[in-house]
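This entry is set out below.
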Amino acid sequence: QPASQPASQPASQPASQPASQPASQRKRWVCLGEIIAKSPFKQAGASELEALRVEKGDVRLLPSSRNEDWWTDEQTAGDWLCEGEVITLGRARYANLKYHKGKFVSSNNHIITPKDRSCVSGRYLFHFIQQNAKKFYIDTSTYPKLDTDTFNNFLIPLPVLARQQEIVDVLDKFVNLTASLTASLTAEKELRQKQYEYYRDRLLSFEQL
């Protein structure tokens, strides 16, 4: 029968990496709460955020909903304008996770930032949280909400920054490819819809094509 696990090592803690492992591949495991900080950025209400939307802007709007492509400009954002590298998780329902580096306005989110960017990449952190987001929310009588204890104590593998960047580069390629395909498929769908409407209207009016 295998020996019992030492009491000093938590059951959920992965084994240490072998000393002979190349430095670039070594990683340590830490709790999320040790490497992230809750941001004090001010936030607009949901209706206020939606009222800030403009057709073409360079300030990203970060709602707690799934809407990704909302923008405004600095003049319209006014006192709500913030700037930084942030990851947002919705306060209620589900995470609808978003990452942004630059100027933004947020609404009804938990906003987190890396405590020490010499140890953890914000983009690496985003991909890890994205992978596990559903595990951080618990059901309530109204909407699911973020369980801060689960979130703060969740273990994350932390390789060296160079390895984090390698992982981010691969994952971001897939993100960009998915966005590109979605845009092209959306355009194709709109074209086919217009074709359908054209032929429908001509055929049902019995006009010659």
